[in-house]
Design brief:
Elements lengths: L1 E6 L14 H7 L12 E5 L5 E4 L5 H7 L16 E5 L5 H4 L11 E5 L1 H8 L12 E5 L6 E4 L2 E7 L23 E7 L2 E6 L7 H7 L4 E5 L7 H5 L20 H4 L8 E4 L13 H8 L2 E3 L5 E3 L1
Parallel strand pairs: 3-4, 4-5, 5-6, 10-11, 11-12, 12-13
Antiparallel strand pairs: 1-2, 1-14, 2-3, 7-8, 8-9, 9-10
């Protein structure tokens, strides 16, 4: 099983187009080793021919161009793509907007929970995906399905919230249901966990992750008040439905004693100092056994 990180950043990408926070500024001034990242997505295959994309980033077209594994193969016809299916883990814009780049009448299987499917069904813009070619599959939590040959997936609930554009006056940030899910991906006797958004790790989630060959986990913010301290926003990480990487209750501390063969932080916000290769925060994360995802990173299991 091969996993390709198509996009390692959170919504808006890195750098964010209109941001001069300390991390984005490092990119704009050309600081050595600071590289751009597109918005959150991975692709998985078991045969190098058929790929399933997890989350359709607004940057999907750019990601396809950047990675030869995603290119059409002319010998297979004038209309071709190795992308056979798409799995969604929530209805956030940075995970569904890219679906509109897949509207050119190419056969695809689209897999998601009923709750996420309801979000798409309620928005007429997604009728651009011709149902004669794009099959929408409603998947029950914890039900196994095979989006491409040799790759089995189970979607499971993780604490989170509804998409920003669906928020009302009162927002519950640790809902557990169909609106935010993780994916357990198995193939070739190996097991990977993909959880790009998570507000908290409860005991049952930690037990599910234990023993995984690979964990790709929400690395949005280093500290909860990061955006406030950078002066670019008023929301905390918790308010946005994301754990912090650092701190006594952060991701690194939570999984410190959990048996996980390889740990990768994905969905990095543009303010996160982990994006700076020589930062103290990057050194601390790496010392704790965590890798920081980048576009084009390949993970073979």
């Amino acid at each position: 099983m091969r996993i390709l990180i198509l996009g390692a950043a959170a919504g808006g990408g890195f750098p964010q187009w209109n941001c001069a926070c300390s991390t984005c500024a490092a990119f704009w001034r050309g600081q050595e080793g600071v590289t751009a990242r597109t918005q959150s997505s991975i692709a998985v295959t078991a045969d190098d021919e058929n790929w399933v994309v997890f989350n359709a980033s607004p940057d999907l077209r750019e990601q396809i161009i950047a990675h030869p594994q995603m290119h059409p193969r002319p010998e297979r016809g004038l209309r071709d793509s190795p992308i056979a299916s798409v799995v969604l883990t929530n209805g956030d814009l940075d995970h569904v907007a890219g679906l509109l780049s897949l509207r050119e009448k190419h056969p695809l299987g689209l897999y998601m929970t009923g709750g996420i499917a309801d979000v798409l069904d309620a928005n007429p813009v997604f009728t651009a995906l011709d149902p004669a070619f794009v099959t929408r599959n409603r998947i029950a939590l914890d039900a196994a399905f095979e989006p491409v040959p040799g790759v089995s997936v189970r979607l499971f609930a993780v604490p989170g919230k509804v998409p920003l554009y669906m928020e009302g006056e009162t927002v519950e940030t640790q809902l557990v249901g169909e609106q935010t899910v993780g994916a357990e991906i198995t193939g070739g006797g190996k097991r990977a966990m993909y959880i790009p958004g998570c507000a908290a790790v409860l005991d049952d989630l930690k037990a599910r992750i234990a023993g995984a060959d690979l964990l790709m986990f929400d690395g949005t913010l280093w500290t909860d008040d990061e955006m406030q301290r950078e002066g670019v926003g008023q929301k905390t990480g918790a308010r946005m439905g994301h754990m912090s990487v650092s701190g006594a209750h952060g991701t690194m501390a939570t999984f410190a004693q959990t048996d996980i063969a390889r740990r990768v932080l994905v969905h990095l916000n543009n303010t996160n100092p982990l994006l700076l290769p020589h930062s103290a925060q990057r050194a601390e994360a790496e010392a704790g056994g965590w890798e920081v995802a980048f576009d084009g990173m390949e993970l073979s299991l």
